[in-house]
Design goal:
Aspartate Aminotransferase, domain 2, 2 domains, 386 residues, globular, seven-stranded mixed β-sheet, 13 strands, Aspartate Aminotransferase, domain 1, 15% strand, 15 helices
Length: 386
């Protein structure tokens, strides 16, 4: 193709290919076991596939309503009531989205104005900051510190100003695996009380919380729920990340603004998949048993890592395990994961990718949403070299 006859003025000049794409590509090139990008290497329940096929053959192949199929929104409302005691109206307060990332982006696009300040917690999932900057918002960063990655509420309080429009939170937290407590939610509620600050709560790993702990959704706390947009993901819950279906729930006034943008950047989401998910949700065990399922994988992976020189950091939720590698190498975290992929045959993600300034704390992230034999093979390689 010929070169453009003009220079493109990028709206995201500092953004390139994501670390997740780069590491997955490198893993494929090297024949490495991919524990970098967060997706399972096993299939979902065949019952879910059967329900999709049923609805396709039943003729449910045209546009769904913009907000989502009523059956699925009702199923979501039932789940939110059962788990968190939260009463969301399926008609006006729940919208089905094309995955969680679209929900997050649309929430920011609908509610952040040029010059508004948005507080995020670093290490931060990579989609948050570009969404804010594209709306002309100003990012304010609170720092989560290794090894436990707990929020420093005094720091957050110091970041709040009259221009603070939104706080974006993520629990259980990617990449650290930290899980916020009821005390954290009380601190957050105290900070926003009496303000017009909106909360966007990324809860895509809501069902993956370990050791008997409960997920403290903002939906559980009326004082927070009344100002929050809550995001979740069917892909994470039902092992179908490629389907890209999630949802967002919020008070009707916030949802009305969200839908103004949603109807133009997505409009609607795959109809037969929505109906299949509604059917599948009728059995709550499909999401209630997820914590035990992934805790077994976490425990297998952590036990195997004990035979290596990695320092295992706490993992209270998600399907990610962070480790320090200082006893193995003094290389940068990016150089280390590249070496790990090329020479050891296991791909991981450097945590510096989750810091805007590339802060390198000598920590990397593995994904353990894998079959037992995949985890065993990866750990055998790690034990030989690390």
């Amino acid at each position: 193709m010929p070169r453009l006859p003009f220079e493109v003025q990028s709206r995201l000049p500092a953004v390139g290919t994501t670390i997740f794409t780069r590491m997955s590509r490198l893993a494929q090139e090297c024949g490495a076991i991919n524990l970098s990008q967060g997706f399972p290497d096993f299939e979902a329940d065949p019952e879910l596939f059967a329900r999709v096929q049923h609805w396709m053959r039943a003729g449910a192949n045209q546009y769904a309503p913009m907000a989502g199929m009523p059956q699925l929104r009702e199923a979501i409302a039932t789940k939110l009531q059962a788990l968190y005691g939260a009463a969301y109206d399926a008609e006006t307060e729940i919208t089905v989205t094309a995955g969680a990332t679209q929900a997050l982006f649309t929430a920011v696009a609908a509610l952040v104005h040029p010059g508004d300040e948005v507080i995020v917690f670093e290490p931060v999932y990579d989609s948050y900051i570009p969404a804010i900057e594209l709306q002309g918002g100003m990012v304010r960063r609170a720092r989560l510190q290794a090894p436990d990655y707990r929020p420093d509420w005094a720091e957050v309080a110091a970041l709040i100003s009259p221009r603070t429009r939104m706080i974006m939170i993520n629990t259980p937290h990617n990449p650290s695996g930290a899980v916020w407590s009821a005390a954290d939610m009380a601190q957050l509620a105290a900070l926003v009380r009496g303000t017009d600050i909106i909360i966007v709560s990324d809860e895509v790993y809501e069902h993956i919380v370990f050791d008997g702990a409960s997920h403290e959704s903002v939906a559980r706390y009326p004082e927070l729920a009344e100002r929050s947009l809550v995001v979740s993901s069917f892909g994470k819950t039902y092992h179908v990340t490629g389907w890209k279906v999630g949802y967002l729930c919020a008070p009707a006034a916030l949802m009305a603004e969200f839908r103004k943008v949603h109807q133009f950047n997505v409009f609607t989401v795959n109809t037969p998949v929505q109906l299949a998910l509604a059917d599948f949700m009728a059995n709550p065990a499909h999401h209630l048993e997820l914590a035990a399922f992934y805790q077994q994988k976490r425990d297998q992976f952590r036990a195997a890592l004990a035979a290596t020189r990695f320092e295992r950091l706490p993992c209270a939720g998600t399907y990610f395990q962070t480790v320090r590698y200082g006893a193995i190498s003094d290389a940068s975290d990016t150089a280390f994961v590249e070496w790990l992929t090329r020479e050891v045959g296991v791909a991981a993600i450097p945590l510096s990718a989750f810091f805007t300034d590339g802060r390198d704390e000598g920590v990397i992230r593995f994904c353990f949403a894998k079959r037992p034999e995949t985890l065993q093979a990866a750990c055998e390689r790690l034990e030989r070299f690390c």
